[in-house]
Amino acid sequence: MKKTIIIVGAVVAFIAISGFILSSGLTDFNNVMLRGINLAGVPDGSYTGSYENGRWTNTLTVHIADNRITDIDIDNNVVAAFVTNCSDELFSRVIQAQDTKVDAVSGATLTSKAYLKAIEDAIFSASRANASRVEILFDYKKISGSASNQFAIWVEDMHGNFVRTLYATQWTAKGGYKNRPDSIPIWAEKTGLASMSKAEVDAVSSATPQTGALTYTWDLTDSSGYSVVPGEYRFFVEGTLRWKNRVMHSGIIDISGDSAVIEALADYTYEASGRFEALTGDSPENLMIGPVTVRFIPS
Predict the structure, then answer these.
(1) pLDDT tens sequence across 244-263
(2) For the whole model, what pTM was predicted?
(3) Distance (Å) of CA 176 to CA 61, 164, 184
């Protein structure tokens, strides 16, 4: 009797876990939209794209020749694709239409959408790699101790309107600013961090990087993904050096013409905080963010 109970319990647990795995990410599909693709200007080559959403997570390679999709390979498949040959039928439709806005395979609507999103990601990545862009480069040195190593990078228009965050350290972005309001405070205020959704925060933040040369790229779109108008824009790199001590690197870059390279101006603020004295111009924390170079690379 005891053995039977254990077996039944194991079966129930297996069914429950399987059901969780198979349904994970299901509700997210309600907000997933297909954007369609534009192959104009995409160089010949093979491009990898992925889509992450529970069991529908997958990675594909899309092959391009003469501005056309010629083949699609699956690198990492979805979990439990229940419709046999779903991918073959779907990929054939994509290749025929040269677009992702095609009918899903009957009985595999969500799996079809997951594949199509990965295809879009591959094409968008290829387009971004060859599109006009702004790169922000600097050397980063990780500082030992607490209340340091936080920074954010963002863009504003010439009227001071926020355009887009390129990066923010995860600790501050995901709630650390509530306990330490002196952590990259200007960025937090400019972005309205307190009212940002989890998805919005996740899209711009990640773990603090290791010491080394860093490059962050702006694809000339705003926070909604729309292309900005050509012209001049202000860039900012704000760093919290230690407690209330911080640095702001900033400058103006013109994205309307030929390539350009700008060296940012650095403004240091030194201020005591409780029992901690203010930093000075000789403090090692000043090396956290090295000279910032910004360059516009036209397509």
Answers:
(1) 999 999 999 999 999 999 99
(2) 0.64
(3) 38, 21, 10
